[in-house]
């Protein structure tokens, strides 16, 4: 991916997830406030995404992140202790905004089936735009020793809670393990597609198949 085009895609995904307004709303006005601290921290994270996607976690350096974000070393260390904390912040931010977007989609989806289909579609759409960083973060989060591992578990719990909140008022309750298994299925499909640099056609097929799976598993037959 061309570096400028890649940075544009990252910005587009961030804005589609709600941008700075959604981030400030989710994080509150603690610390330096959304127009200062949150803005600077997020700009560093956004700039770092391209670096991590291009060079990988091991090869990327703090100097690379400074150059990409065009900030001083002092500013960088005000918000992050090291490059792993930057990746951790990217993972937390992306999960938080994606879950917020899924929750917003409940308001426009006419039925549980439509919401599930739209949610799966949105999840896989981002693979086309920023696949390399998604793959890096998912693989890192699967390592038990990684700081991202605990965030992955919390993300799964939040996703499970969101499914229960949306579906169980209208549909029969399910064993929590059913929801968890479906979340694992989405995650495994994602890793497979990203691991082999799947084509747009394959990703579109995954959207259809995984959407069908969630609907068949969670929604009663008409």
UniProtKB/TrEMBL annotation:
GO molecular function: DNA binding
Gene3D superfamilies assigned: Tetracycline Repressor, domain 2 (1.10.357.10)
SUPFAM superfamilies with a match to the protein in the record: Homeodomain-like (SSF46689), Tetracyclin repressor-like, C-terminal domain (SSF48498)
Keyword Secreted: no
Record bears the keyword Ubl conjugation: no
Domain HTH tetR-type: 38-98
Entry-linked Pfam families: TetR_N (PF00440)
Key words of the record: DNA-binding
PROSITE patterns hit by this protein: HTH_TETR_1 (PS01081), HTH_TETR_2 (PS50977)
UniProt DNA-binding region: 61-80
Protein name: Transcriptional regulator, TetR family
Species per Swiss-Prot/TrEMBL record: Ectopseudomonas guguanensis
Organism lineage: Bacteria, Pseudomonadati, Pseudomonadota, Gammaproteobacteria, Pseudomonadales
């Amino acid at each position: 991916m061309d570096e400028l085009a890649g940075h544009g895609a990252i910005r587009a995904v961030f804005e589609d997830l709600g941008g700075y307004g959604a981030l400030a709303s989710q994080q509150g006005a603690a610390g330096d406030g959304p127009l200062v601290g949150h803005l600077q921290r997020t700009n560093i994270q956004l700039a770092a995404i391209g670096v991590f996607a291009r060079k990988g976690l091991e090869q990327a350096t703090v100097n690379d992140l400074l150059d990409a974000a065009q900030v001083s070393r002092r500013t960088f260390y005000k918000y992050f202790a090291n490059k792993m904390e930057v990746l951790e912040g990217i993972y937390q931010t992306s999960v938080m905004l994606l879950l917020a977007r899924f929750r917003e989609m409940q308001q426009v989806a006419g039925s549980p089936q439509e919401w599930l289909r739209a949610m799966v579609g949105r999840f896989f759409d981002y693979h086309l735009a920023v696949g390399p960083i998604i793959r890096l973060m998912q693989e890192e989060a699967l390592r038990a020793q990684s700081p991202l591992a605990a965030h992955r578990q919390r993300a799964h719990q939040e996703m499970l809670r969101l499914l229960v909140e949306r579906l169980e008022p209208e549909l029969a309750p399910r064993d929590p393990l059913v929801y968890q298994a479906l979340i694992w299925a989405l995650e495994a499909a994602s890793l497979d597609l990203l691991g082999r640099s799947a084509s747009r056609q394959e990703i579109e097929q995954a959207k259809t198949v995984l959407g069908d799976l969630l609907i068949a598993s969670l929604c009663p037959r008409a």
